[in-house]
Amino acid sequence: MAKSANDRRIDYIEMNVADIERSKAFYGSAFGWTFKDYGPAYCEFRDGRLTGGFTTNARPTPGGPLVILYADDLPDMQRRVEAAGGRIAKPIFEFPGGQRFHFLDPDGYELAVWSKR
Predict the structure, then answer these.
(1) What global pTM score does this model have?
(2) Measured in whole angstroms, how far is the alpha carbon of residue 12 from the centre of its chain?
(3) Which contacts of 38-44 are long-range, i.e. CB under 8 A and separated by 24 or more positions?
Protein backbone atom coordinates (compact mmCIF):
# COMPACT_ATOMS: atom_id res chain seq x y z
CA MET A 1 0.00 0.00 0.00
CA ALA A 2 1.45 3.37 -1.04
CA LYS A 3 1.72 5.94 1.74
CA SER A 4 0.00 9.32 1.41
CA ALA A 5 1.83 12.61 2.04
CA ASN A 6 -0.15 13.01 5.29
CA ASP A 7 0.51 9.57 6.76
CA ARG A 8 1.55 9.89 10.44
CA ARG A 9 1.50 13.72 10.45
CA ILE A 10 -0.58 16.25 12.34
CA ASP A 11 -3.54 16.84 10.07
CA TYR A 12 -6.24 18.66 12.01
CA ILE A 13 -6.90 20.42 15.31
CA GLU A 14 -10.33 20.31 16.92
CA MET A 15 -11.43 22.76 19.61
CA ASN A 16 -14.42 22.22 21.89
CA VAL A 17 -16.20 25.57 22.18
CA ALA A 18 -19.30 26.86 23.98
CA ASP A 19 -20.53 28.97 21.04
CA ILE A 20 -19.44 28.35 17.45
CA GLU A 21 -20.61 31.74 16.16
CA ARG A 22 -18.66 33.53 18.91
CA SER A 23 -15.54 31.50 18.05
CA LYS A 24 -15.94 32.24 14.34
CA ALA A 25 -16.30 35.95 15.08
CA PHE A 26 -13.20 35.96 17.28
CA TYR A 27 -10.84 33.95 15.06
CA GLY A 28 -12.17 35.54 11.87
CA SER A 29 -11.65 39.04 13.23
CA ALA A 30 -8.34 38.44 15.00
CA PHE A 31 -6.63 36.12 12.50
CA GLY A 32 -8.60 36.26 9.25
CA TRP A 33 -9.60 32.59 9.35
CA THR A 34 -12.36 31.34 7.02
CA PHE A 35 -15.09 28.85 7.91
CA LYS A 36 -17.29 26.07 6.52
CA ASP A 37 -20.32 25.01 8.55
CA TYR A 38 -21.28 21.33 8.91
CA GLY A 39 -24.50 21.75 10.86
CA PRO A 40 -25.24 23.41 14.18
CA ALA A 41 -22.62 21.51 16.21
CA TYR A 42 -19.59 21.63 13.90
CA CYS A 43 -17.67 24.19 11.87
CA GLU A 44 -14.38 23.73 10.04
CA PHE A 45 -11.84 26.56 10.10
CA ARG A 46 -8.99 27.25 7.73
CA ASP A 47 -6.08 29.50 8.61
CA GLY A 48 -4.56 29.44 5.12
CA ARG A 49 -2.29 26.46 5.84
CA LEU A 50 -3.97 24.17 8.36
CA THR A 51 -7.60 23.20 8.89
CA GLY A 52 -9.35 22.42 12.13
CA GLY A 53 -12.77 22.45 13.68
CA PHE A 54 -14.95 24.03 16.32
CA THR A 55 -17.45 21.69 17.95
CA THR A 56 -20.08 21.97 20.65
CA ASN A 57 -20.25 18.15 21.01
CA ALA A 58 -18.15 18.31 24.19
CA ARG A 59 -17.46 20.88 26.89
CA PRO A 60 -14.61 23.33 26.30
CA THR A 61 -11.42 22.02 27.87
CA PRO A 62 -9.05 24.80 28.74
CA GLY A 63 -6.15 22.34 28.63
CA GLY A 64 -5.82 22.55 24.91
CA PRO A 65 -7.37 21.51 21.63
CA LEU A 66 -7.56 17.98 20.32
CA VAL A 67 -4.57 17.37 18.02
CA ILE A 68 -5.54 14.99 15.22
CA LEU A 69 -3.06 13.01 13.12
CA TYR A 70 -3.77 11.19 9.87
CA ALA A 71 -3.03 7.54 9.04
CA ASP A 72 -3.58 5.62 5.83
CA ASP A 73 -4.15 2.38 7.78
CA LEU A 74 -6.12 3.20 10.91
CA PRO A 75 -6.24 -0.28 12.51
CA ASP A 76 -2.48 -0.65 12.05
CA MET A 77 -1.90 2.78 13.59
CA GLN A 78 -4.06 1.89 16.60
CA ARG A 79 -1.96 -1.25 17.11
CA ARG A 80 1.24 0.82 16.80
CA VAL A 81 -0.01 3.35 19.35
CA GLU A 82 -0.85 0.58 21.81
CA ALA A 83 2.49 -1.18 21.21
CA ALA A 84 4.31 2.09 21.90
CA GLY A 85 2.57 2.44 25.28
CA GLY A 86 -0.43 4.61 24.37
CA ARG A 87 -3.81 3.89 25.91
CA ILE A 88 -6.91 3.88 23.71
CA ALA A 89 -9.45 6.39 25.03
CA LYS A 90 -12.02 5.84 22.24
CA PRO A 91 -11.64 2.86 19.90
CA ILE A 92 -12.12 3.31 16.17
CA PHE A 93 -15.49 4.90 15.38
CA GLU A 94 -17.23 6.27 12.31
CA PHE A 95 -17.90 9.96 11.69
CA PRO A 96 -18.95 11.88 8.55
CA GLY A 97 -15.93 11.65 6.27
CA GLY A 98 -14.11 8.71 7.81
CA GLN A 99 -13.09 6.93 10.98
CA ARG A 100 -10.91 7.82 13.95
CA PHE A 101 -9.75 6.75 17.39
CA HIS A 102 -8.52 8.70 20.41
CA PHE A 103 -5.57 7.76 22.58
CA LEU A 104 -3.72 8.98 25.65
CA ASP A 105 0.03 9.41 25.39
CA PRO A 106 2.32 8.47 28.32
CA ASP A 107 1.73 11.88 29.95
CA GLY A 108 -2.05 11.63 29.62
CA TYR A 109 -2.49 14.00 26.66
CA GLU A 110 -5.40 12.97 24.46
CA LEU A 111 -4.79 12.93 20.71
CA ALA A 112 -6.71 11.36 17.83
CA VAL A 113 -5.88 9.65 14.55
CA TRP A 114 -8.26 9.64 11.59
CA SER A 115 -8.49 8.08 8.16
CA LYS A 116 -10.76 8.46 5.15
CA ARG A 117 -13.25 5.68 4.53
Answers:
(1) 0.71
(2) 5
(3) 38/96
